[in-house]
Amino acid sequence: MKTIIVLLLIGIGILVVLPQQVFAQVGASEQMMNHMRFTHTQLANNIDNVIQLIKSNNTSEAITLLEGMEIKIDHMNTMFNDLVWELSNKGH
Question: N or C: which end of the chain has fewer CB within 10 A?
Fold first, then answer.
């Protein structure tokens, strides 16, 4: 009787924990994709700003903006590598 109760509790535990882990992984991937899309949009907007700054001879501001973009690009590359690693572990 005790064995059946223990097996039943283990089965219930697996049924409760496993779906949560699957949904957590899907959520993490989606969060990374959303963050990457947001960062990409920011970079696209910054490029337009850099062009305008250079045209109006505000090169120091343009350089500052480009340096900030470089940091964001490095961050985006890290996120992309993390996403690829996560998806490869899921078998995609």
Answer: N
Helix (H) or strand (E) holding 73: helix 59-90
**C-alpha distance from residue 59 to each of 54, 66, 72 (Å):** 6, 10, 20
Instruction: Quote the pTM value.
Output: 0.49
pLDDT tens for 30-76 read: 887 888 788 888 888 888 888 888 899 888 888 888 888 888 788 87
| Per-residue pLDDT tens digits for 39-50 | 888 888 888 888
State whether residue 58 is helix, strand or coil.
Answer: coil
Q: Can you tell me the distance from the alpha carbon of 79 to that of 73, in angstroms, rounded to the nearest whole number?
A: 10
pLDDT above 80 for 82:
yes
DSSP secondary structure of 2-32: HHHHHHHHHHHHHHHHHHHHHHHHHHHHHHH
- Smallest CA-to-CA distance from 79 within 41, 42, 32, 38 is with 32
